[in-house]
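Tokens as discussed.
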């Protein structure tokens, strides 16, 4: 089986790194097309032996990319085309059908109630998405919450299947030596109480809540933010105004898997933390929360669909907290007062082992090949209302 994955870009991000991780566990021949910026994840995929093609798309309305992508798919003689992220899903589904590939799968990584990939969910965005969706065979949701959102939009439920994000448990296992090295490289004292935040530095992640919560915590508390994005400057200014600029560490984008980048990767930084805080009020899955649980961390979070369908005993030290600085300050102070506990991965993390996700995705491919998409009929007005 030959599978072509099409993704909008390959900078360091949850969907991008999830793609690389899955490809390491899928027993099929895979190649990747990135529409835009190849980024560090492209280098990592190439190091893994995966062919990566940069389409060179210049913007959302670069219609010249469509014939290039169609020709590439036709020439590659792929059995399955699998698209990831909004722009790639739209262009990739159209190009795959024009190239004669009817086994088309799309993963919806980032669909929230009010936005997707930071883009407001206007009526136009939804209508365009649904028109493209009808050209595929299956839409994969990364959580039941995303599946329910897709169904509310008007995607027929038989076309939706859930394949959750996966975690490399062995890579996130707590490592005292990695903790020491990471803290040393970042200038964090061994005795500091380190609050971790993982994710893109964008407004929707609400890391400003953690900056303001830090101001109400003892002086030995530090905030370690792992990720990059357009809100970094605003967060730095907020830290200065709150008087905690010397207690916030911006680690930048760090790889999930080794890619030749200097400095500690994400798993080592998770070992360096004492608690994972995730104040985002709207998530499609909540990968950072599951990564924290895989590292054996206590977790305080606001939204995590990945935990909603699991029993409480699967993550006993994952506690929901309102998206409010005072609430987070109190919750984090409670974790600090309780002292360190065992750093064993929670059952919820084991539930999301990447090998299980890869096996489920392989079944999706088999079903798509057995029952390829039919040519869609006229659009239903009710879907686009």
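Sequence:
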């Amino acid at each position: 089986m030959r599978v072509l994955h099409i993704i909008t870009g390959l900078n360091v991000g949850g969907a991008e790194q999830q793609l690389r991780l899955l490809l390491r566990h899928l027993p099929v021949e895979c190649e990747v097309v990135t529409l835009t910026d190849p980024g560090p994840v492209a280098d990592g995929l190439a190091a893994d032996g995966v062919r990566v093609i940069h389409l060179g798309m210049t913007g959302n309305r670069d219609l010249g990319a469509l014939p290039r992508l169609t020709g590439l798919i036709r020439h590659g003689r792929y059995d399955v085309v699998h698209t990831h992220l909004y722009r790639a899903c739209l262009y990739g589904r159209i190009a795959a059908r024009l190239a004669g590939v009817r086994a088309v799968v799309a993963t919806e990584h980032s669909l929230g109630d009010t936005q997707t990939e930071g883009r407001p969910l206007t009526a136009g965005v939804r209508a365009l998405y649904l028109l493209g969706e009808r050209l595929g065979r299956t839409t994969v949701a990364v959580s039941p919450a995303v599946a329910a959102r897709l169904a509310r939009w008007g995607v027929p439920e038989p076309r939706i299947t859930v394949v959750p994000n996966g975690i490399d448990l062995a890579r996130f296992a707590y490592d005292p030596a990695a903790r020491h090295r990471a803290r040393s490289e970042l200038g964090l004292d061994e005795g500091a109480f380190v609050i971790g935040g993982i994710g893109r530095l964008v407004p929707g992640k609400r890391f400003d809540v953690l900056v303001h919560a830090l101001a109400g915590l003892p002086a030995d508390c530090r905030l370690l933010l792992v990720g990059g994005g357009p809100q970094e400057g605003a967060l730095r200014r907020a830290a200065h105004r709150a008087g905690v600029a010397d207690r916030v560490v911006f680690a930048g984008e760090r790889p999930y898997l080794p890619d030749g980048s200097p400095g500690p990767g994400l798993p080592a930084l998770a070992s360096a933390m004492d608690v994972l805080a995730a104040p985002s009020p709207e998530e499609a899955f909540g990968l950072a929360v599951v990564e924290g649980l895989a590292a054996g961390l206590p977790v305080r979070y606001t939204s995590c669909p990945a935990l909603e369908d699991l029993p409480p005993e699967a993550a006993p030290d994952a506690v929901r907290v309102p998206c409010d600085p005072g609430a987070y300050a109190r919750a984090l102070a409670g974790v600090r007062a309780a002292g360190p506990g065992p750093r064993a991965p929670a059952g919820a993390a084991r539930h999301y082992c990447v090998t299980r996700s890869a096996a489920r995705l392989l079944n999706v491919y088999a079903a798509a090949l057995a029952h390829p998409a039919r040519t869609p009929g006229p659009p239903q007005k009710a879907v686009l209302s």
